[in-house]
Amino acid sequence: MSALWTLLKFLLLLAIAAVGAFFALENSQQISVNFVLFQSVSVSLGLWLLIFLAVGCLLGLLASSVLITYYRRKLLRAAKKD
User: Fold this and answer.
1) If you average pLDDT over residues 11-28, what whole number do you get?
2) Is it the case that residue 19 has pLDDT exceeding 80?
3) How many domains does the chain have?
4) What pTM, to 2 d.p., does this model score?
5) What is the distance between the alpha carbons of residues 21 and 49, in angstroms, rounded to a whole number?
6) Where are the alpha helices (DSSP H) in 1-82?
């Protein structure tokens, strides 16, 4: 059963990578992004969108992990009191 879940996860990851690759290929306009302190190199719009999506997902995971850690500690303290 574990091998089946591993296979399904791999296939899902492969499908997501394929959709991301097709998305990047369809948005091939070259742009450069101006950040606060510097200007980036010129790469495709699809690549920039995928980069910003990945960074946003990672920041969301980080923010949610901070909240989860806070509530787990709070739960452990409440369990110790009882």
Assistant:
1) 86
2) yes
3) 1
4) 0.66
5) 12
6) 2-26, 45-81
Domain range enclosing 52: 2-81
The owner of tokens 């091998």 is 3
56-67 pLDDT, tens digit each: 999 999 999 999
DSSP state of 34: B
Q: What is the mean pLDDT of residues 42-53?
A: 86
Tokens, residue 81: 């009191």
Task: Output the CA torsion sign for 6, 10, 13, 19.
Answer: negative
Tokens coding 8: 């399904």
Cα 52 to Cα 58: distance, rounded to the nearest angstrom: 10
The CA R_g of the chain, rounded to the nearest whole Å, is 20
Inter-residue contact 45 to 28 (CB < 8 Å): yes
Give the N- to C-terminal CA distance of the chain in Å, as an integer: 39
